[in-house]
């Protein structure tokens, strides 16, 4: 009305707009006289944020600025003002604000919002619109739902690529906002409001939005045809995929805390206790079965695989990851999505889906090249493919594949492909410098193999075909052999490169977990694995013995060739002894290690005329312990001996001694008669083995100087063994133990040089042993009572 007043208002707004943009630029590190320090710039933005009714100013900034950060902060101010002033805003004013924001997107073809090309500005814009839409949803639910679907459909069907992305982004943002109730923008709303909005949104909008994205992706597949897909709008495809994954990870499709877990509702039975709990939430049932599983024009799994076949789509790292994530979510489906009044139909539908997911995993695995995946920016492909297999086979079990015609062939094909993937990854990861992506993928596959072996070979409930169990053993043995072969080759290569391969595992806990997973594969064919490991340990021990004999005294030096051979044998012994320890005993997890059932059965069913593979493997390590003790006692602590191998030997003797040496029969349902006859508490062989273990420990503590870590580990070994009542009772019959006691009581120099940690453990072992012996225990000249 007043031209002068209007001009003054325009000048004030222009001044405020200029100040706001300068403040944002100052925050970005640009020099500005008006804002010489960052705090002044922050105060300017904060004042704008806290001002009353800042919408006109912020809309003008967002619409005209060339600085994307200024547009982002302006939209953030709008969001803050809406949350603060919501109660004071009328619905008409709210509608105008929402319409103005959407108008920015619709007018993108003109000069409106030139910064809208920036993804973070797009996301902020759609987030603000989503907040407004959710808060005004219950005013007119039907109109809100209809308006949302119409607006998104109009934007997606537009010819403009940016407008399509904004449409998918708007749908994904409101889905995310409706789904959550703990975001900052939703903390002031009551839980009943969240539940009401979510229920109505699920019922009216979720499926139409999902189908909209699926149809767009299907059209992109048809457009690509058999080409490489370079003409496709990859960014638009990515936006549609993001919406698909948002909906697939909805709480009735996957647990909101972990997209890998199937949602409680879908796995829940329709009993009386749960009907009331789920009455306000959408039960997908057959309402989503036609969309996710059976519909020919939008079968999501087939659609994702078809997209992945397009080179241009697969070549984009973010888009390809979204596809793999969608397949992983589809591998998590279970429960009511497969439910039908016809139980046979329901079982068949589930089996068909499990088979389709596994076939999709096989297809993805054939596109996986571990040797070049990093160079091609496809490192995530390795891990995601492994996770898809793990999710599918742990969710449906391999038995689901056998419930359809030809399912047995599919199961064998899946096992064969898994074997190939695992062996390929072994060739890459078993290196001195392991790549994290490939290592994670290998760990996922090893975990999967452990589950498969337990499911097929150990479970009494499942009656699997004999050929499936036979193939599983065959493939597991192949992987175990590949691991040992690769590990030995790398040990030889690293010695020639003058590097110590053991140092790649800085975390002993991870090393134990890693080898425990490999050991499970070795136990699938226990005899073959034990024979291979014990044979290689004997070969390496014999090589070191010959090298030590050739070096007649300490003045002689090894030739370069001999030194390489000795170091190769030491590196191999480090891995072989460690691997054998994991194969021969179950993971401890802080408890006493136990003899695995597979090895107990192997020992029990080995023919009496044949040597027991378990005992043969044990003797191979004790033979190396005897060689090491002989060299240490002779003062031959030179290149022939390795502190790494000695430390690994102590680790093995503790694990083996606690599980096999005079075992506690209360821990087992039944014990192999051959093992009990050889290593039981009344066995002379067990006493000889205990003597060998204690003799090796005495050599480490008394004869190997200046190795504090080895002395501490050995003292802990004695303490752990002495805690066993059966071993304590036999300990006084071993001469090496009396040698240790004498040295301790007489305070020999070797004892005095031990580190405090070793002395503490040794004292505990001595006290436990003497307590078992009673008051009659006396030794030394003056004698020492209890």
The computed structural class is mainly alpha
pLDDT under 50 segments (min length 5)?
253-286, 774-786
Please tally the β strands and state the result. Answer: 0
Radius of gyration: 35 Å
Q: State the major sheet.
A: none
Helix content percent band: 55-70%
Topology overview:
Blueprint: H1 3-27, H2 38-50, H3 55-64, H4 68-85, H5 91-106, H6 119-135, H7 141-156, H8 161-179, H9 191-224, H10 234-248, H11 264-267, H12 272-278, H13 285-294, H14 300-308, H15 311-315, H16 317-330, H17 343-366, H18 379-396, H19 407-429, H20 436-458, H21 466-496, H22 508-524, H23 526-550, H24 560-584, H25 597-605, H26 613-633, H27 643-660, H28 673-679, H29 684-703, H30 708-722, H31 725-731, H32 735-745, H33 749-752, H34 756-773
Helix pairs in contact: 1-2, 1-3, 2-4, 3-4, 4-6, 5-6, 6-8, 7-8, 7-9, 8-9, 8-10, 9-10, 9-14, 10-16, 14-16, 14-17, 16-18, 17-18, 17-19, 18-20, 19-20, 19-21, 20-21, 20-22, 21-22, 21-24, 22-24, 23-24, 23-26, 24-27, 26-27, 26-29, 27-29, 27-30, 29-30, 29-32, 30-34, 31-34
């Amino acid at each position: 009305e007043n031209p002068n007043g209007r001009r003054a208002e325009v000048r004030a707004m222009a001044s405020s707009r200029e100040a706001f943009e300068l403040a944002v630029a100052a925050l970005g590190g640009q020099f500005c006289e008006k804002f010489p320090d960052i705090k002044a710039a922050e105060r300017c933005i904060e004042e704008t944020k806290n001002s009353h009714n800042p919408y006109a100013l912020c809309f003008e900034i967002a619409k005209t600025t060339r600085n994307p950060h200024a547009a982002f902060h302006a939209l953030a101010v709008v969001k803050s003002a809406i949350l603060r002033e919501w109660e004071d805003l009328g619905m008409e004013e709210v509608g105008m604000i929402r319409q103005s924001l959407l108008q920015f997107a619709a007018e993108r073809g003109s000069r409106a919002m030139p910064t809208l090309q920036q993804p973070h500005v797009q996301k902020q814009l759609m987030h603000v619109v989503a907040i407004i839409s959710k808060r005004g949803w219950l005013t007119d639910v039907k109109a809100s739902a209809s308006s949302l679907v119409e607006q998104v459909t109009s934007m997606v069907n537009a010819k403009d690529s940016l407008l399509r992305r904004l449409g998918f982004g708007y749908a994904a943002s409101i889905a995310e906002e409706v789904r959550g109730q703990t975001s900052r923008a939703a903390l002031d709303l009551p839980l009943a409001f969240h539940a009401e909005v979510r229920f109505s949104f699920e019922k009216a909008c979720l499926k139409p939005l999902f189908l909209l994205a699926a149809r767009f992706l299907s059209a992109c597949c048809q457009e690509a045809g058999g080409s490489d897909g370079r003409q496709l709008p990859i960014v638009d495809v990515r936006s549609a995929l993001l919406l698909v994954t948002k909906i697939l990870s909805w709480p009735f499709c996957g647990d909101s805390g972990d997209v890998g877990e199937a949602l409680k509702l879908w796995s829940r039975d329709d009993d009386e206790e749960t009907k009331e709990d789920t009455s306000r939430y959408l039960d997908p049932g057959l309402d989503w079965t036609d969309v996710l599983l059976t519909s020919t024009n939008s079968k999501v799994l087939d659609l994702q695989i078809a997209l992945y076949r397009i080179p241009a789509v697969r070549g984009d790292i973010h888009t390809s990851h979204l596809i793999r994530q969608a397949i992983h979510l589809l591998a998590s489906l279970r429960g009511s999505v497969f439910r039908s009044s016809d139980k046979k139909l329901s079982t068949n539908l589930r089996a068909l889906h499990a088979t389709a997911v596994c076939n999709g995993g096989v297809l993805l695995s054939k596109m996986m090249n571990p040797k070049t995946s990093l160079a091609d920016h496809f490192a995530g492909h390795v891990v995601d493919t492994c996770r898809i297999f793990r999710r599918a086979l742990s969710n449906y079990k391999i038995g689901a594949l056998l419930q359809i015609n030809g399912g047995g062939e599919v199961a064998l094909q899946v096992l064969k492909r898994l074997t190939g993937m695992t062996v390929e990854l072994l060739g890459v990861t078993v290196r001195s410098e392991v790549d994290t992506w490939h290592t994670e993928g290998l760990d996922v596959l090893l975990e999967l193999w452990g589950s498969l072996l337990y499911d097929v070979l150990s479970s009494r409930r499942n009656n699997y075909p004999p050929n499936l169990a036979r193939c599983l053993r065959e493939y597991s043995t192949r992987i175990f052999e590949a691991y040992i072969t690769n590990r030995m080759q790398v040990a030889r290569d690293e010695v020639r490169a003058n590097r110590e391969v053991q140092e790649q595992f800085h975390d002993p806990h991870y090393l134990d977990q890693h080898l425990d997973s490999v050991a499970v594969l070795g136990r699938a064919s226990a005899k073959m694995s034990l024979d291979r490991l014990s044979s290689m340990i004997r070969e390496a021990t014999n090589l070191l013995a010959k090298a030590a004999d050739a070096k007649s005294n300490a003045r002689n030096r090894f030739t370069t060739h001999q030194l390489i051979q000795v170091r190769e044998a030491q590196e191999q012994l480090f891995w072989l002894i460690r691997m054998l320890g994991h194969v021969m005993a179950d993971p401890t997890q802080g408890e006493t290690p136990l003899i695995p059932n597979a090895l107990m059965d192997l020992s029990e069913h080995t023919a009496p005329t044949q040597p027991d593979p378990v005992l043969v493997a044990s003797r191979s390590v004790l033979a190396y312990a005897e060689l090491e003790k002989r060299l240490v006692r002779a003062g031959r602590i030179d290149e022939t001996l390795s502190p790494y191998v000695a430390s690994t030997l102590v680790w093995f003797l503790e694990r083996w001694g606690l599980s096999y040496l005079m075992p506690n029969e209360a821990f087992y349902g039944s014990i192999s008669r051959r093992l009990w006859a050889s290593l039981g508490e009344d066995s002379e062989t067990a006493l000889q083995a205990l003597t060998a273990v204690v003799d090796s420990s005495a050599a480490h503590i008394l004869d190997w100087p200046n190795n504090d870590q080895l002395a501490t580990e050995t003292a802990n070994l004695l303490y752990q063994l002495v805690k066993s009542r059966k071993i304590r009772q036999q300990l006084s019959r071993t001469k090496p133990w009396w040698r240790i006691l004498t040295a301790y009581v007489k305070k020999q120099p070797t004892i005095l040089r031990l580190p405090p940690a070793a002395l503490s453990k040794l004292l505990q072992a001595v006290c436990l042993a003497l307590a078992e012996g009673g008051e009659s225990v006396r030794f030394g000249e003056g004698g020492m009572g209890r």
